[in-house]
Write a structure and sequence with these properties.
- There is one protein chain.
- It is built from 15 helices and 16 strands.
- It is α+β, with helices and mostly antiparallel strands and about 425 residues long.
- The chain has an eight-stranded mixed beta sheet, with helices on both faces. Strands 13-12-14-15-16 form a five-stranded mixed beta sheet, sandwiched between helices.
- Helix 12 links the parallel strand 12 and strand 13.
- The chain is elongated, with a radius of gyration of 29 Å.
- The structure holds one RNA strand of 76 nucleotides.
RNA sequence: GUGGGCGUGGCGAAGCGGUCAACGCACCGGAUUGUGGCUCCGGCACUCGUGGGUUCGAAUCCCAUCGCUCACCCCA
């Protein structure tokens, strides 16, 4: 074991896996652009207050999961634990609201949370996500949800379910909170320890508690979904109408609450059963108060975020894993001291015209080098020995057909350009 | 933060108190002259995460510690 190990909860993405990562990132970007979302890149760290305000002081993320540090100027900074707060901060700071009424963004990148790692949960993990700011039209909710659905399908996740709920607005939420507290008060002492404290901080979460969920009183407690104000109820039903219209199936889950404080109205979660205990693969919701909370105008917003690591796990479970092929077009084989210089020159010439080429650097024998060429999946071997060097020629061997020709060194590039291009 | 499982060569994995720590894969070399994928032969852990203890003797038992992993809270 090495003396230096990567920090807990981080991962090295090795070349083989990097191919899949890149494929996912490329496909995600392309899909987002198809929906006319534009990429936005915000800093990986922000002033701590951005997350305290943006994510919410009562959330686990802020209370116990942030990577917070003081820089040399004594400023408190935090590695971003999620993407929305930073995007909204940028939106407000750069005054992007001046441009158009509705703006659509996407992002891709690492996030950091100080958690104990397990399957599908890491301290540095990666998310792709979208944010739509400036419209509260339920068509936008449906578009964002539909985009999540589309992305998962496109990525090869064949089965998953979509849970949908509405968590209301500050008006109906406050009203529901009163009802709920009154309702639960008599059984407060029967609740689990966590729910005792949720009682004051975030009673909505009690409904979602895995321990108390089965408690008869809790199970039949008033749901926010049933206590929505007129506006929220209409929003919720219209979102469903559009989803129906788009042929996207979902289940209403009245106990589903999103973990972040900023959510209002629409909340949704895509879950996949085979990736471990943490089955949420992509989730999001509407956050109508957030922009104003971060100092901007009173604009509505909605978005989602998905975990790349969880997507990769799900792809694996669905047999969609992609392995990178590591092939080279040409392998330059130099024999002996005398061949090294012309070989280096030819290797460089081949690469200059875009032919993927490699060579051996350890001065091994022909046999060993051919073995390497074979293993690299090379189509051609350019062989340079004493005879060839003396004659200004090279032997070019087609590894598949075993045919070998000897040509002038000056013709090599044009000869191979032609051969290699024939494959495409 | 809490609980379970596990830590043997690059990887997978046997051994679970007593000769030199199996084996497979990978890797390296060889099977006569400068020609590959198969086969055959050979090489590759003074050491079993780390530290301490028990014992005549420990990879094997005990304790601690670190790490990995799964699960809980919560979450992508």
């Amino acid at each position: 074991m090495s003396e230096f190990a990567k920090p807990r909860g981080t991962a090295d993405i090795l070349p083989e896996q990097a191919a899949e990562w890149r494929a996912i990132e490329d496909a995600a970007r392309q899909l987002f652009e198809t929906y006319h979302y534009r990429e936005i890149r915000t800093p990986i760290f922000e002033h701590t207050e951005v997350f305290q305000r943006g994510v919410g002081d009562t959330t686990d993320i802020v209370q116990k999961e942030m990577y917070t540090f003081l820089d040399r100027g004594e400023r408190s900074l935090t590695l971003r634990p999620e993407g929305t707060a930073g995007v909204v901060r940028a939106f407000v700071e750069e005054k992007l609201y001046g441009e158009m009424n509705t703006q659509k963004f996407y992002y891709l990148g690492p996030m950091f949370r100080y958690e104990k790692p397990q399957a599908g949960r890491y301290r540095q993990f990666h998310q792709y996500g979208v944010e739509v700011i400036g419209s509260s039209d339920p068509r936008v909710d449906a578009e964002v949800i539909g985009l999540g659905d589309h992305l998962l399908r496109q990525m090869g996740v064949k089965s998953f379910s979509l849970l949908l709920n509405s968590v209301g607005c500050p008006v109906c939420r406050a009203r529901h909170r009163e009802q709920l507290l009154a309702y639960l008060q008599p059984v407060r002492s029967e609740l689990c320890k966590d729910c005792q404290s949720r009682f004051d901080k975030n009673p909505l979460r009690i409904l979602d508690c895995k321990i108390d969920r089965d408690h008869p009183v809790v199970a039949s407690a008033p749901k926010i979904t049933d206590a929505l104000c007129e506006d929220c109820a209409r929003q919720f039903s219209q979102v469903q109408t559009y989803l129906d219209e788009m042929g996207i199936s979902y289940e209403i889950d009245k106990t589903m609450v999103r973990g972040l404080d900023y959510y209002t109205q629409t909340a949704f979660e895509f879950v996949e059963g085979s990736i471990g205990a943490v089955s949420t693969i992509l989730a999001g919701g509407r956050y109508n108060g957030l922009i104003q909370m971060l100092g901007g105008p009173d604009l509505p917003g909605i978005g989602f975020a998905g975990g790349v690591e969880r997507l990769i796990l799900a792809r694996a479970a669905h047999g969609a894993t992609q392995v990178g092929q590591d092939r080279v077009d040409v392998f330059v084989l130099a024999l002996g001291e005398i061949a090294t210089k012309p070989a280096a020159r030819l290797l460089h010439e081949l690469r200059s015209v875009g032919i993927k080429a490699d060579s051996d650097y350890s001065g091994r024998k022909v046999k060993a080098q051919l073995k390497v060429a074979d293993r690299l999946g090379a189509r051609y071997v350019v062989l340079l020995g004493e005879d060839e060097v003396a004659a200004g020629q090279v032997a070019v061997r087609n590894l598949a057909t075993r045919e070998q020709v000897t040509i002038e060194q000056s013709e090599l590039v044009s000869y191979l350009s032609e051969q290699v291009s024939l494959r495409f």
